[in-house]
Predict the structure.
Amino acid sequence: MEESNLSIHTFVDASKIAYVACIFLRSESSRGSVTVQLLQARSRIAPMKTITIPRLELMAAVIGARLSSSMKQALKLPYIKTYFWTNSSTVFTWITRREQWSVFVANRISEIRKLTSSEDWLHISTDQNPEDILSRGCGPKQLQNCKWWQGPAWLQNPKEQCPKSAVNIDEKEVEIEKRKSVIYANNTELESISLQLARSFSRFSKMIRVMA
């Protein structure tokens, strides 16, 4: 199948329990029939140290970027169209907005931008993200019947019908990770020439002789 008829869709999500990413390959035949396959998934248990949900979601985005990059190399399809889906408006904003972020966020955003294009990142609602159930945990029966295996139903539709979720940005949450600017003020007192000379000579009479 031609590379133009293939696309990779990476979904990322996180919770207090875990952060995850999974990749689906979408192929469309010349007749318009669409097939969606799960290619790879990866999950990590959230660290014992308390980390904010936005940071965990950013860590999931890093995993997704790495998986997508390695999958393109494995398939030998370097120019295949890729899409990255997140339901975190904060992570979406960090990736797409050019700002000076904190060290934690900046390092991860830097890696994401090296492996992906910010234009390929899209925002979806939580109920449209198949990763949501995995990041929160589920039982065997629930996992067997969930949409995680085939991806969301809308991947079967034409590209024009992909969901376009409005991004409601929590500016306060976004700004928390903005790099703090430190301004140093140098207050220099200028002394008069006469005062400087007075400090240099212990005796007034000696100063008079030097200046005479």
Remarks:
- The two ends are 98 Å apart (CA to CA).
- Strands lie at 6-14, 18-28, 34-45, 81-86, 121-123.
